[in-house]
Specification:
The chain is an alpha+beta fold. It has five helices and four strands, in the order αβαβαββαα. It has a four-stranded mixed beta sheet, with helices on both faces. It comes from Aurantiacibacter atlanticus.
Length: 114
């Protein structure tokens, strides 16, 4: 019998590796439920990349599990090609410095469709 932590961690691992870019957030891209999630969506939109999202408010196991998975205490959390990038503040700093777009280009992530 697998324990809940292992099962949740495996689910998260599948999610972060499913899409090039994945954002764990509160709410959805169309209806973010907090300012930090809203800012993260705006940054990804500016980068013009395709991304998947997970509404942690809909799944308490994921909401708690993602914090342990990344060893990062807050949400939103951004993953690019399966690697944890950071939360809203780090995303903002990287975006302002041009590092986030550079990372997306280096990792050859899929562009958003018009």
């Amino acid at each position: 019998m697998t324990d809940l932590k292992t099962e949740t961690s495996e689910r998260i691992s599948e999610i972060v590796n499913k899409d090039d870019v994945v954002l764990f957030m509160k709410g959805t891209p169309l209806f973010p439920q907090c300012g930090f999630s809203s800012r993260a969506i705006a940054i990804l939109d500016h980068c013009n990349v395709a991304f998947g999202s997970v509404d942690v408010l809909q799944d308490m196991e994921i909401r708690q599990g993602i914090k342990a998975y990344s060893d990062w205490p807050t949400i939103p959390q951004l993953y690019v090609k399966g690697e944890f990038v950071g939360g809203s503040d780090i995303m903002m700093e990287m975006f302002e410095d041009g590092e986030l777009l550079q990372l997306m280009n280096e990792k050859q992530v899929a562009k958003a469709e018009d």
